Amino acid sequence: MNEEIKGNHSTDEKELKRLSADLDQNIKMVTDQLGTQPDIMIRQLHLFSNSKAALLYIAGMTNVNAVNLLVMSMISEPPLGSSEQVESPFDSLMYRSLAVGGIRKLASLDEVLLAMLEGNSIILLDGFCDAIAAFTCGVEKRSVEEPSTQTVVRGPKEGFTETLHVNTALIRNKIKSPNLRMEYRIIGHQTRTTIALVFMKGIADDKVIEEARRRLDLIDTDSILESGYIEEFIQDKTFTPFPLLQNSERPDAVAAGLLEGQFAIIVDGTPFVLLAPVTFVKFFQSSEDYYQRYDIATFLRIIRFFSFFASMLLPSIYIAITTFHQEMLPTQLLISIAAQREGVPFPALIEAMIMEVTFEILREAGVRMPRIIGPAISIVGALVLGQSAVQAGLVSAAMVIVVSFTAIASFVIPSVNMGTAARLIRFLLMILAGTFGVFGILAGLMMLLTHLSALRSFGVPYLAPIAPLVPGSLKDVFIRVPWWAMKKRPGFQKKEATVRQGTPSSLSETDDEHPQEGSEQ
Amino acid sequence: MSITRISIVAAVAIVLTCLLTGCWSRIELNELAITSATAVDRKGDEWFVSFQVLIPSSISSGIGITGGGSGAPVIVYSTKGKTIKEANSRSFFESPRKLYFAHNRVIIVSEEAARRGLNPVLDVYLRNTDARETVDVLIAPGSARTILEQMMQIQKISGDGIREINHLESKYTSILPEVKMYQLAMSLASDSGSALLPEVFLSGHSDAASLKVFDRTTLPAKVKLGRLAVIKKDKMVGWLSRKEALGVAFLRNDVKKTSLTFACPNEENKHLTLQVGSSSTELQPILKGDKMTVKAHIKGKAVLSESDCASMDLYKPEIVDALEKAAVKELLTYTEAGWKATQRLHTDTLGFADLAHRKYRKQWRTWKKDWDRYFAAIKVEVSAEITLTNVGLSNQPFNADALREGKK
């Protein structure tokens, strides 16, 4: 951990409890604070210089091998010739013999406790008022696996894990640039969750980064357990169904965002990394768009926009047309729908509501239920609620088709939280359609458009580059032009870093001799 | 605006919106009587309006459709009144559903009603939003309601079927035009003040008003298109035969595609058929003294589609020339018949009044007061030019004997 850790709630002002020179008293102070719990390990030992020492760590938080090595290096003889030098046992340990990578010198009890709780091993020496924290963190962790939410056919199969350092390494592995900066913070009085603010220096807009730092520093809470906490604390506007921060499980997607000038927030303990600032169209871009041929990517992107509007509008359009504007249907279709509706006892609005709510319940059940009873839900959902409801004359077959298509369309959107937005708006539009017809739908859409154009994500207009129109950035909105044509970044970056092709040295401020990597994406 | 205020406003808006449900023009599909055809008859001073109403569950069958596929697909009922709308509103006395006209495909007016005037029909269609002006208008001799009662082969909904027949006929033979309500209104409102409407009639000895007719492969009675009705100043004045109708269609530049059948140039009692596509007519009025002559030039392209003639080598240009000349001669008989019929009915169905108005605006002021008399004095000179573009895949007419001998 080379970067500086900044606690956002500085303890500088508080009266720091210093360690004493007495080993036993120090150990007692620690055990008083933590309680005598079985997983708190205190190993007392004698160094070669016969001075007493103690090794404190929490079992399970530390790597067993690292601790063993540490003990070994403490009790073993000092290297030859060392005895000639006049050196205190503390300095000898600190600068010479400990076989461990990260070493810190701690002076206060609080620091000792925090270091222990993070998984460090603490070495206390009798007669010294300082402690040494050795980096032996090693919690059992999930290995890097394929992301479960944002799967692709072509592209890297690795996904973020719950461990912050694995996640930062995955990003560093993608972007081997000195300009990749990570700033650490600890948020949460109780959880003391480490959070990394990641950005590309020289590409990300300094003002946006400054704003991000400010908002993160303002968070005053006792716990951060997932990036969703952070998202709600720092988003620009709370009362909106639309997500104002993107999240991703994919290192390649995050790397691409960073290279476009977005910043990322990695939260220890969750594989979901936040990306901001973000625009509406970002939620329709899948990382796969950039790995596939541009024409296919363009087609798929149009399909996604269509699906978004279908999942938002289809039930309401169906309601509006069948109850207000029957003349809009072709005659044959009208007859067919009318025939299906003959025996249905409910108005189209109620019918649609029943089906939509049923589907939402099914979907929620599908997510929550234990995997083992999955098939049962499928059978009940597909047979009982679909076919049987139609046969029983409760709902019309056309409505089942509309609801099913709507449901499937809502899964096409690569970003789950944007899909959820469409789901919520769908219900509102259905009521409007049932009361005012197409007029109601259009009124609702106008309000939605006004709302969307008023949204900002870290100062970036949500509908950019459509409103305000930035013609140059439209290359990656409804269509995806070939890579060689995307010479400029799409608009999150600072002004000086607009061009991303043809100027190899523009990113590097230090003008180092770093070998140019191939295309990063 | 504070958060609480926004949420209060939103809640109130949603509640008020819900209260509006059921008001306004909401109508469920199963409250509609979808009308596929309307018939207008006149008896005494009253209008008899008949509606062909669809029974959706008899037309579509599938999962969840009760009583699918059995029973008559439509039901016909009539109401009477002093106006058409009064008759319509009386339907509420007998129909469980509200009549819905947006999907009305045809309106069939009886000959008697047409002879007494079409103005009320046009008024109803142009004044109201629920009736569409794109409905096809047809004339039926005798009772128009009978037409609505007939079952039709292939098409379950005969109203839709009549429209399809009319549409395809006008597209592929162009003898009878497909006239929509707005076109009728436009041509009646033009200077010539006349319009043409196709006739729909019932052919056969009995009628086909029951599903039982489908037990047999032939229908005892069929709905067919017949002659062409001529309307003058909203009243029907007479009929044109099919030959006259095609002549008029050529002169009006209404021909999209048609066929001409005539005797072979080298053999009188055998025939050949030309398929005429993309014909165009140019009318040019010329004023000589007080009299107007209209020069009509018809240009058409034709394909030989059948020939029963004796041996003729179609690779020879003179043969093709002869064919083209024969076709022109045949075409001129049609146009002449059409023109004579127009003169006989004293009706300017060809739109000469509009031509005259456009070209001779000064004279038009005097002509329009007594256009019928001037129209009777107009002379028409028709010339035609038919190009044979294609003779088909074979050259000589097929003759089994000749082919066998050629082998020997």
Textual characterization of the structure:
Chain A is of the alpha+beta class. Chain A has three domains: 12-134, no CATH class; 145-278 and 485-521, no CATH class; 294-454, no CATH class. Chain A is built from 15 helices and 13 strands. The longest helix of chain A is centred in the middle third of the chain and has 30 residues, at 294-323. The model of chain A is unreliable at 1-14 and 506-521 (pLDDT under 50). Chain B has two domains: 28-240, no CATH class; 241-408, 2-Layer Sandwich (GMP Synthetase, Chain A, domain 3). Chain B has helices at residues 3-20, 56-59, 84-89, 111-116, 119-127, 144-149, 158-172, 181-189, 242-251, 317-344, 352-359, 361-367, 371-377, 400-407; strands spanning 32-43, 46-54, 74-81, 98-100, 106-110, 136-140, 194-204, 221-232, 235-240, 257-264, 267-288, 291-307, 379-390. In chain B, the strands form three sheets. In chain B, strands 1, 2, 3, 4, 5 and 6 form a six-stranded mixed beta sheet that branches. A four-stranded mixed beta sheet of chain B has the order 10-11-12-13. In chain B, helix 9 packs across helix 10 (317-344) and helix 11 (352-359) crosses helix 12 (361-367). Chain B is globular and about 95 Å long. In chain B, 39% of the residues are buried.
Helix and strand topology:
The complex is a heterodimer of chains A (521) and B (408).
Chain A: E1 5-7, H1 23-34, E2 40-46, E3 52-58, H2 64-75, H3 89-97, E4 103-106, H4 109-117, E5 121-125, E6 131-134, H5 164-174, E7 180-187, E8 193-200, H6 206-218, H7 227-234, E9 246-248, H8 251-259, E10 263-267, E11 273-276, H9 294-323, H10 331-341, H11 348-368, H12 374-391, H13 397-410, H14 416-436, H15 438-454, E12 456-457, E13 460-461
Helix pairs in contact in A: 5-8, 9-13, 9-14, 11-12, 11-13, 11-14, 14-15
Chain B: H1 3-20, E1 32-43, E2 46-54, H2 56-59, E3 74-81, H3 84-89, E4 98-100, E5 106-110, H4 111-116, H5 119-127, E6 136-140, H6 144-149, H7 158-172, H8 181-189, E7 194-204, E8 221-232, E9 235-240, H9 242-251, E10 257-264, E11 267-288, E12 291-307, H10 317-344, H11 352-359, H12 361-367, H13 371-377, E13 379-390, H14 400-407
Parallel strand pairs in B: 1-4, 1-5, 5-6, 12-13
Antiparallel strand pairs in B: 1-2, 2-3, 7-8, 8-9, 10-11, 11-12
Helix pairs in contact in B: 9-10, 11-12
